Amino acid sequence: MAKVNASQIRAGNVIIMNDKLFVVLKAQNVQPGKGAAVTQLEMRGVVDGVKTNERFRTTESVERAFIDEQEFQFLFQEGDMFTFMDTETFEQVAVDGEVIGEPKVFLQEGMQVRLSLYEGKAVAVQMPQTVTLEVLETEPVVKGQTASSSYKPSLCENGIRVMVPPHIGVGTRIVVYTADSTYMERAKD
């Protein structure tokens, strides 16, 4: 355990508050027009699974629990359980979809993720920052449409909708940020 500034807390970190462990689901630094900057944390209790929101001044200290973090490879999904494998020991761990949260739509077979383990139980999953997806549906290119500010909706292979530039067509592979499901660039593969 160590004290860190609230502004250093990221999604997937585990913190201790009121002698309870919480997994950070979303962390957002907010700079209001007036007053000091704050960090807004959306968290879930490790033991009871209850979600809560907390605000901290960015300079305020938060107790971060350093628990066992390891690289795992995603193998498969069965119902709402996701199975990961430790790439060194080949030990498999089943994780409930609720622990992963919204980013579970980005999981792809063979993907490397970081699992946070507390007493052998997975309490958080840190996804890669970006993922490459194929566009399945999008509107056709409109002649004369400028690429500077206009984006069009597209449906990706994992079922999420992403706003993409006009030059992106069906079958194009794109790189998407897992944190907010936004388009980054055309894939280079």
UniProtKB/TrEMBL annotation:
Domain Elongation factor P C-terminal, chain residue ranges per copy: 131-186
Pathway entry: Protein biosynthesis; polypeptide chain elongation
Matching Pfam families: EFP, EFP_N, Elong-fact-P_C
Top-level taxon of the source organism: Bacteria
Family: Belongs to the elongation factor P family.
Keywords assigned: Cytoplasm, Elongation factor, Protein biosynthesis
Domain Translation elongation factor P/YeiP central span(s) in chain numbering: 69-123
CDD domains: S1_EF-P_repeat_1, S1_EF-P_repeat_2
Protein name: Elongation factor P
NCBIfam families, per database record: efp, PRK00529.1
Localisation per UniProt entry: Cytoplasm
PANTHER family in the cross-refs: ELONGATION FACTOR P, TRANSLATION ELONGATION FACTOR KOW-LIKE DOMAIN-CONTAINING PROTEIN
GO molecular function: translation elongation factor activity
HAMAP family: EF_P
Gene name per UniProt: efp
Biological role stated in the UniProt entry: Involved in peptide bond synthesis. Stimulates efficient translation and peptide-bond synthesis on native or reconstituted 70S ribosomes in vitro. Probably functions indirectly by altering the affinity of the ribosome for aminoacyl-tRNA, thus increasing their reactivity as acceptors for peptidyl transferase.
Organism field: Marinibaculum pumilum
